[in-house]
Amino acid sequence: MNRPLFSNLANSAIRRFVLGTFLSAAVLAGGGAAYAANGAGGTQAAPAPRQDKDARREHRPKDPARLIKRLDKNGDGKLAVSELPEKAQKRLAGADTNKDGALSAEELKAHAEQHAKARAAKQKERFARSDKNGDGFLTRDEVGDKRWERVKAADANRDNKLTADELRAARPARKQPAAR
What we know:
Blueprint: H1 8-37, H2 51-57, H3 64-71, E1 79-80, H4 86-92, E2 102-103, H5 105-130, H6 140-143, H7 145-151, H8 164-174
Antiparallel strand pairs: 1-2
């Protein structure tokens, strides 16, 4: 009588072990191929940042024609206010100056310029409010110790006084996203 070399339980365990080893080797081989494809150091050139993200970061208006093309759901070449996401509908409803229900590139550009002017005026007003003695500079005494610790890096000439231009120049550097 022939007796099996291993019991059914042992055969099952051996099969699982062999299959697991084979799958692990396949995964490692695939990972090695991907590692080699990325230049053996895993370094891959980062994609160029999109213009729209840079525009948002620097508070520049986005390219209106590109925005229209991206959001034009029905493909008629016009951007109807109803085709915009809900938040954008509220924000851009006033941009339709000729009240035809569609936003043109010129209307979007004019709206962005108007918005930028309003933002600049608001920043100027905020600076003037903080400049308690009206000399055109912000000092530690005027803004307080806690806020000064946040803004003193903008003091380019290290005179312990901040001008509106120094704050404006430091703003883009402060808003850069963290490296991923």
